[in-house]
Amino acid sequence: MSGIIDDTNNGTAATAASVTAKTTATTAGTTDPTARLVVDNPAPVLRLDGVRKSFGATQVLRGISFEVARHEVVALLGPSGSGKSTLMKCVNLLERVDDGRIWLGDTDITDPRENQDRIRARIGVVFQQFNLFPHMTVLRNVTLAAIKVHHWQRDRAEARALELLDRIGMRAKANAYPDQLSGGQQQRVAIARALMTDPELLLLDEITSALDPMLVGEVLTMVTELKSQGTTILMATHEMSFAHEAADRIVLMRGGVIAENGTPRQVMDESDDPATREFFAHFRH
Ligand SMILES: Nc1ncnc2c1ncn2[C@@H]1O[C@H](COP(=O)(O)OP(=O)(O)OP(=O)(O)O)[C@@H](O)[C@H]1O
Ligand SMILES: [Mg+2]
After folding, report:
1. Ion ligand 2 — residues with CB under 5 Å?
2. Is 155 inside a domain boundary?
């Protein structure tokens, strides 16, 4: 399945750039220690600080704090109803937090004075289903938000869309309608659309859970390829073995708070917490 995204040039360029940055920083570090600090501790792409959200009397998020570093893939896990989607919606400004702050880079996106469309252009989002408009072609689906919301010229949007569709091997389907594609192809198109504005952060909320099991693999392969290209991803998933394999870090939500935050091994294999062990035992067959 290799080559779903054939963009190794970008990946290589990104790696080369970061090596150059590190080398420069190390050299600079001998004379200017702060220069090194900046490169070794870049600001997180996403930072949540004490986020709270209730629906009526139901407290869904009861003080959520964690970070996603640049190029990191973080899997957000937790039982159904634990607030994963609510948290994603707060990050994407579809829901307003009751308390706490969310930072995207240097921007406090919970500040109502910030321009919401400009923030949304910096975040790509893919949900479980209903991602594509059935009455529009693939090309129109992929370009729609860029043109209507972010005011791109049609030519620019179509060129970018065709480039992305080419990368996922779907260029030939540009004029097809969603019901002419498999569910897996539709989700890959939805991911391509989310990448249109070259977002700093990609939010993936259960993107394979509505798919036929046969089609899950191709979508997860695409996520793995994005990770290898350095895309920063926060993903809610029930695909535990994929989370174990692909995530750099697991954030486990339970009862509106973060129960665990660590490497897949620390959280999924080695936690001493009985409730955590019970949660993951449930998925092991
Ligand atoms: N708009 C809303 N109005 C009222 N309650 C809501 C709303 N959205 C979510 N909730 C409630 O918030 C809680 C968390 O829901 P959420 O969808 O965030 O959970 P989740 O962790 O994503 O679950 P799943 O794994 O099933 O997707 C649930 O009790 C849900 O009923
Ligand atoms: Mg959900």
Report:
1. 84-85
2. yes
Q: Enter the pTM of the model.
A: 0.84
Pocket of ligand 1 (CB under 6 A): 55, 58, 60, 78, 80-86, 206
In tens, the pLDDT along 38-48 reads 455 578 999 99
Asked if the structure places residue 189 within a domain, the reply is yes
Q: What is the tally of structural domains in the chain?
A: 1
Cα–ligand 2 centroid distance for 252 (angstroms): 13
Q: Which mutation among 58, 94, 127 tests ligand 1's pocket best, with the greatest number of atoms within 8 A of CB? A: 58
Q: What is the pLDDT of residue 133?
A: 93
* Residue 41 lies inside a defined structural domain of this protein: no
Q: Among candidates 100, 272, 122, which has minimal Cα distance to 197?
A: 122
The residue segments making up the domain with residue 135 are 123-198
Q: In the numeric block, which tokens belong to residue 137? A: 């072609």
- Answer whether residue 3 is part of any domain: no
